[in-house]
Design goal:
Layout: H1 3-16, E1 21-26, E2 31-34, H2 36-41, H3 54-57, H4 60-76, E3 80-87, E4 93-104, E5 110-119, H5 121-143, E6 147-151, E7 157-160, H6 162-168, H7 172-175, H8 187-190, H9 193-200, E8 206-215, E9 218-231, E10 234-244, H10 257-267, H11 272-279, H12 283-297, H13 302-311, E11 328-329
Antiparallel strand pairs: 1-2, 1-5, 3-4, 4-5, 6-7, 6-10, 8-9, 8-11, 9-10
Helix pairs in contact: 10-13
């Protein structure tokens, strides 16, 4: 066997199982060769197509178009981009995109038409699903009423929606590009560097807790649920959903660790004697802390102290038994 003939056999064997659909037809519209991928477009085996004409394989309107394109290619000698629309075996519509072109015979005259096509059905479906998902995400961000902030891995604000901007009392364009620490009180204590680092390095999928936003009117406690966004498996951004958990106040109360524990036990309904015993305080020392808390929170009674502690974001409004507002991990 000559080297050229052997190479031709190798090429035909390779083309026969190429994922790209390919065919060769003569100038009378009769199939001389098709590979498995092309025959599959019509739900047939290659031997069920070879030897037949386009009218035997395609619907009448498609066959007429194929004939016209064949004539154009053979006359001009230039390739033509073309789309084949077909039905998959299950009846779902499909689409293949490619080119058909002239093939010269031994005489050098263009007497055959070749075509190579790629099935783009799944690609188009993926694009449609991506577009639909984008529209749904846009609707969720902009029309759900949720306050959503997108952060870069460097902690800078990339995007805020209208609800988040309203919480801050600032236009979105003023906030975007800022370091998030500029808009959160005690950022270093509320969102520990280790938690943020674990999130942005991909070791955590999400974390959350209560933060106090610096707003135009003072401070606003919000529950922040932070979720990592990956692209191609690599951490790319962090999305925070903010939910107000208390009223806006002019300045966040500064309470000591002991006073915070007192507030937790007050919220649980513990009497003064139990609080003093649990914290190792004398009656006079506990009375001092209660007086300081009433002054700091502008609260005349125990129920008012508890209510103000929740409004100020000192206690976690989503937890029982009561606990301080601290970052939790998931």
């Amino acid at each position: 066997m000559a080297v050229g003939e052997e190479a031709a056999e190798w090429f035909e064997a390779l083309a026969a199982y190429s994922p790209a659909a390919a065919f060769v037809r003569d100038d009378r519209g009769r199939y001389l060769w098709v590979n498995a991928a092309y025959a599959h477009l019509y739900g047939r085996a290659p031997e069920g197509v070879v030897g037949r004409t386009v009218e035997d394989v395609d619907p009448p309107e498609d066959a007429a178009t194929a004939r016209e394109l064949d004539r154009e290619v053979l006359t001009s000698g230039r390739p033509v981009r073309h789309v084949i629309r077909f039905l998959h075996a299950g009846g779902a519509p499909g689409e293949a995109v490619g080119h058909r072109f002239a093939l010269n015979g031994l005489s050098g005259r263009a007497c055959r038409v070749g075509g190579i096509y790629v099935d783009v059905t799944d690609h188009h479906r993926a694009l449609e699903e991506r577009a639909a998902a984008g529209e749904e995400l846009h609707a969720l961000r902009e029309r759900s009423g949720l306050a959503v902030v997108t952060l870069g891995l460097d902690g800078r604000v990339r995007r805020v929606n209208a609800a988040a901007a309203a919480l801050l009392g600032l236009p979105p364009g003023v906030v975007e590009g800022d370091d998030v620490a500029e808009h959160v009180e005690d950022a270093s204590g509320t969102l520990p560097g280790g938690a943020w680092r674990a999130l942005t390095e991909g070791r955590l999928a999400r974390c959350g807790g209560v933060l106090v936003l610096r707003t135009a009117g003072g401070g606003r406690p919000v529950r922040a649920e932070l979720s990592l966004v990956r692209r191609a498996g690599v951490p790319a951004a962090v999305v925070a959903v903010l939910t107000p958990v208390g009223a806006e106040f002019a300045g966040r109360p500064r309470v000591s660790p002991v006073q915070l524990r007192v507030l937790v036990m007050l919220a649980a309904g513990e009497p003064n004697t139990a609080i003093a015993a649990a914290l190792g305080l004398s009656r006079q020392a506990l009375d001092y802390h209660l007086r300081r808390l009433r002054s700091l929170l502008d609260a005349p009674s125990r129920p008012a102290l508890v209510a103000r502690a929740y409004c100020a974001g000192l206690l976690d409004a989503t937890a029982w038994p009561p606990r301080p507002s601290v970052v939790r991990y998931a």
